[in-house]
Amino acid sequence: MIQIQENISLQYFNTFGIDAKARYFIEVSTDEALQELLHHTIFRNNKYLILGGGSNILFTKNFDGLVIKSAMTGITVTAENDDFIFVRAGSGENWHQLVMHCLQHNWGGVENLSLIPGTAGAAPMQNIGAYGVEIQNVIENVNGIELSTGTLRTFTNSDCHFNYRESIFKQELKEKYFISSITLRLTKKKHHLNTSYGAIQDVLKQHNIAHPTIQHVSDAVIAIRQSKLPDPRVIGNAGSFFKNPTAHEKEVELIKKEYPSIPIYPIGNQNVKVAAGWLIEQCGWKGKKLGNIGVHPQQALVLVNYGNGNGEEIFQLAMKIQASVKEKFGITLTTEVNII
Hints:
The longest helix is centred in the last third of the chain and has 19 residues, at 311-329. Helix content is 26%, strand content 28%. Helix 5 (198-206) crosses helix 6. It folds into 3 domains: 5-70, Uridine Diphospho-n-acetylenolpyruvylglucosamine Reductase, domain 2, CATH 3.30.43; 75-187, 2-Layer Sandwich (Uridine Diphospho-n-acetylenolpyruvylglucosamine Reductase, domain 3), CATH 3.30.465; 236-339, UDP-N-acetylenolpyruvoylglucosamine reductase, C-terminal domain (Uridine Diphospho-n-acetylenolpyruvylglucosamine Reductase, domain 1), CATH 3.90.78.10. The chain has helices spanning 31-38, 41-45, 95-104, 122-126, 198-206, 214-228, 249-258, 276-282, 311-329, and strands spanning 5-9, 21-28, 48-51, 57-58, 63-70, 75-80, 84-90, 129-130, 133-134, 139-146, 152-156, 177-187, 236-240, 246-248, 264-268, 271-274, 289-290, 293-295, 302-305, 338-339. Strand 15 and strand 16 form a beta hairpin.
């Protein structure tokens, strides 16, 4: 029998630490429990929100509906051959702990995604990525349950329509499927290491590591992230608040005349990605504190809740940052964090 709670604070279920309340709240640990929920009057008569680790969400108000949190756990090997192993993880598994589990078994492919907050189920939804790797590089399939019918469906990698911080689960199928598990395709040997990001190379050189392993890469990524990003358990935040925007080369050439050091990354079709953190920093926001909230002093992409801040304050700060970047550079920033 499922148990739906009422008027529950979501402060400990979102990494910003915003004390919004859910009218109804349930943690679902099995497919059977979810199927039971789908027939419940509270589910049928209310709007709902599926919550993973709460690491990519900003509550600007109370949620007058049902919050469904995945508590589906378990890591199992579903198949393997000489070169690859296929690892299924329940959607409620902590993402970083899953990465650590893979490293302990010398399974390669996710080491660059170390220390990213959130859950396994949220990872494909957001197409999480860091240091030259995205989860689309290792996803074999995603298992989901259609919330309107209770039908189970397996999505192949191509079915997921992955793009930069995007997937079908954030677009056409947003809030239509509950992700129950994901399966990763990982290497057992001859790991392809991605150390192309300079920061990783710098850390490896500092430790005199000429022939890195996947563990070395993970350690380097963790060191970099810890040096740049605040721990949400200490200072409320959701990591990068904005996506790196895409602009046309001609557009950026005009900006380069005044700002020759603007960091850009070619992505083809005469388009480049621009470092959003750099744009924000040039507008003078880095380290700015406004009462209980602000912009992190070491990473301008990260908005923070120093304690007792509310979601509306953080949202208004984000809008001011967007407006100033647009005015100064003519580039529109879009949020990576979901605003509720």
